[in-house]
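Input record (one chain):
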Amino acid sequence: MIPDKSLKIAVGLSGGVDSSVAALLLKRAGYDVFALFMQNWHDTTGTLHGDCEWEEDRFIAEMVAKKLDIPFHFVDLSDIYRKRVVDYMFSEYEKGRTPNPDVLCNREVKFAAFLKAALDLGADFVATGHYCRKEKFKDDSGNIIYRILRGRDPGKDQSYFLCQLDQQQLSRALFPIGHLLKSEVRELAREAQLPSAEKKDSQGICFVGKVDLPLFLQQKLEPKEGDVVEIFREHYDSMPVKESLEEMASPLCYTPSQGKVIGSHQGAYYYTIGQRKGLNIGGHKEPLFIISIDIITNTIYVGEGESHPGLYRRALKILPAEVHWIRPDLALESSKELKCDIRIRYRQPLQKGRLICRREALYILFDKPQRGITPGQFAVWYAPDGEMLGSGVING
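The corresponding structure, as predicted from the sequence alone:
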């Protein structure tokens, strides 16, 4: 927590149990707390009704604030959310990349536009219901350095979603429930009889909810029929072994002549590497997985089975402009390496590997081949003690 209880804290109250308990703990600790609910989305195109509807969320959030006897405020950030998150999503999918809107939402909205709105209302800090921990220390020059660490609950650790925050944003952030298990959070909510105690966790895109992705994307990306080409395992038998770092980090490229056309789709940009569902193609003993997407020719390449070699790679690449260090004081210099734990998607178990810094790119070389390395997603790296050090957008 923070030492000075006279400081004012805005809690991003979403209507869910996690932010509700964050507010509860701060209020019990004696801080000057107020609730701030943000609306970020109006359009229901592509959304599956009943999931994450903001009207219900606001109603529950207001009830929680009333229960805790704290002021309730509302802010509409939907224009900013559309420009900084949703438009970015459309742009990335159009390029054949798969973005992570939750990461962008935290960087561009929750700890930027929302933080500003909270400060304008007199807040000194913003607290959220993320399952992660924050620490600080002074370096040898007397500068305050902030650290983000994984949450105590290994099944709910949400540090990944905060991988693009910087030191300035962290200086104003609080994560009151990061030391708790989800089961403990639920129990605290029940004991306090909070209206959100039994509310299910939200799913899908941050503040949009669960969506039919192709239908959602059709708002800007029109359907366009193309081929689905199957690449058989025998194709890899005669391929040369990748030896250089650049070769290992580069995804395989295919042509239709290397496989067999087995079906069609309505737009390559509606799909992502490693995807299994949504192809609707039968006649195989094992499930089909997308192993490559060619936006230029509008072709999807698939392989049969989870062990298909097209799904796996040992390395990935991040361009210099897309490397972000939460701890700039620990940033790698060119030609340096760092052993660390890595995650290339939320909920993925941590993987062992090395960061290898070169002038042209930052490479991540894994100890074991990784399944479904996806351009556009974020790779995140951690120190052995659980501190999240930095992140970057996967280029290849």
